[in-house]
Design goal:
single chain; 448 residues; alpha/beta; FAD/NAD(P)-binding domain; Enolase-like, domain 1; seven-stranded mixed β-sheet; five-stranded antiparallel β-sheet; 31% helix
Amino acid sequence: MADYDFDLFVIGAGSGGVRASRVAAAHGARVAVAEEYRVGGTCVIRGCVPKKLLVYGAHFAEDLADARRFGWKVPTCDFDWTTLRDNVLAEVKRIEGAYGTTLASNNVETILGRAIVTGPNSVRVGETDYTAAKILIATGATPDVPAIPGAELGITSNEVFDLPSLPKRILIAGAGYIANEFAGIFQQFGAHVTLVNRTDVILRQYERQIVERLLAISMAKGIEFKFNTTMEKIERLESGALKVVFAGGAEPVETDMVLFATGRRPNTKGLGLEAAGIQLDDHGAIPVDADSKTVADSVYAVGDVTNRVQLTPVAIREGHAFADSVFGNKPWRVDYGCIPSAVFSHPPLAGVGLTEEQARLSLGSCKTYTADFRAMKNVLAGRNERALYKMVVHPETDVVLGIHMIGPDSPEILQAAAVAVKAKLTKQQFDETVALHPSMAEELVLMR
């Protein structure tokens, strides 16, 4: 490897790229990472981290109202978007600096600029050429915007954190986790939210009963859903508002802002991968094997750019596995079989393992157990919102195949429950566990 400038050149300093860089360097490799925007990637800069902070901020709308039922004399409170926005952006900048410090402390050279692959062992950043024994592509994904007239009048999750002011009306196109999370955020901030989807299904990969509960709660809070509706064009009115026109003669909607949350596509455009003999798949993703290696023996790819599982913790594991396997003489592969995930909606939902539908399709049958209840806090607050937990169990072995839930703190509870599912514990073992009372989590061991 001494014949090259670096042992490893990473393109993209997001979660997967940073982890791979740090671990490879710890194994003794000479590592460089190129980043064209900001160190930290989508999750840190304009994704899950700032979004979760907005979720926290939005929750205070209900928390302040509930506090009065608990005896606190809370006056009428006004919300200042610019304060939250600026504090969130400041925290993002702090974390970005921490990522940069981590790379530097691990002797990873950070090169700011857009990198292009020029061959199986070469990369160009600006006017400078570099060579490397191994190249890792970790450029993530980018919002996918529909090709309709007026699409440029809308925004994506990339721009939503920098808004100068909050809209009074917002139309969100999409039905995945990004759409439902921002629907909850903007609704709590006082905007009228309209969510538009091409089909009548939201959050397709999650347990249906849980999703239906979220839909009912969201509608009760005033979020408007337009199903089986396709956007045809967006027009700017003289008033400054936007007019969204739909196909099929559906009534147009006037709104102040359109947010596209219509999926994310691998960020591979203009990377020069053809110079290394790499052809993209039909989704624009980089095909890789179980070790994250492309058809070029010297080029690897991890994270959203491969379109395997678009989750930050998965990208981190893929980057770690790559570095250990290639530079640490400790080969291992990522297990994609039991990945927990959450939607930070209002209320949040989370799940791990098989849904009931998936279990029935693969096994023919399954057992299910549910707990449908009002959290103690909601009861005293006079809030009718109900939590729902569901357990999917193997019909013969009694092994818990999946756990799904919606309600306060569901993601926090689900993380621990995911360990049990991963360990293939049985329903009997859940039943034999003493409940922690009073808690919402105790419902996991009380389902009969």
